[in-house]
Write the structure tokens for this entry.
Amino acid sequence: MKNARKKTIVFSAIGLVVVMLSNCKLDDQILGNDVTTTNALVSQKVATAPNIDGAIDAIWANSPKFEFEAVVPDPSGDIFRGYVGNITSSITLRSMYDANNIYFLAEWIDPTESLIREPWYFDPTTKTWAQEKGAPTFSATGAITRGAFYEDKLAMLWNVNNSVSGWNNATCYKSCHTGLSAADGFGRHHTNSSTEKIDMWHWKVVRTGFPNGQFDDQYQDNTYANGRKSDDKTGGGYTDNKQTLVITGTATSVTVPKYVIPNATNYYWILQSEIDGGTAKLITAVDANGVLAYEGGTIDPNTDVAFQRDGAGVGAKVIPGIYTAPFVGSRGDITCSAVHTGEGWVLEFSRALKTDDVVNQDVDFSSLEDQYFGVGIFENAQIAHSIKANLLLKFQK
């Protein structure tokens, strides 16, 4: 589905491999090309920077394309259930740099623009509000009974200050740990020593990309079981659009959306600026029939069926699952813009060669040394992703 509003928003993109779970065996991954000078990602030195707007400027023609495919592996614990074996058949990376910044252009095949992330819908049978799930729902026999409602993402992992032992031979697999207990999430990312840090770039199209033009800049340390952390910030970010209210006239508490834009259709996030400006309204009450009240009006989802499910999809007025504002601080270091072409994604992003980071959360490119990295592509998926490890970035001197 397309959001007319988003077409005017500077799109953002990049992300990091949320849970690059793949049995953590390097030989399970189809690596394709050997890592050599000729088939590495070569960052061209330029005097003029590209516009980070999702359009492929003519200047990109001077940067060699680095193309590969990636496959969703089969880790333990059914972590990637419903996605295993899916192939991202063509991923192309290009890069350039100038005196201050590094720039990337990523293109990949994905004909479905996934923007409907865990939206709120009304169930007229139970008279309650609920959110669509971010993962597929399965029957007792293993068949998918309802597809996932999530977002497209991209992730990259980098070695911070060459701190991760064996990184150049394994990249993202160095922090991938599967076979864990259910309490530990079956599989998680964490480094293997207190001295090791991994920079994690995570493009989340709904939460940070389209609305804010940023990646979610994160990192990994050795915290067990989940070493995934977010870079420091002084403001901004995304929040689940939910709250608990007591049903009017009862003592029963229910979970309902927190904000709504009355009469809006096909919208996938709410901006903090829309809340501050009064376009988005705070929901203040809910009755036994699920009717929501906000200052200036009510929403009766029993009569307005656009708030309900529509077959395998959802109605046009379902309420977004998040509200969001741009990161302020290190977590917003990566600027991006994306366009979905109908066949796949075009994602441009940039970051300073060396950020203001003083707590070892970011990779430093300023030495122009070779950097090994890994890439993950998430197609409408929370954690299941196709993986390409052992890639190499080289700087043209």
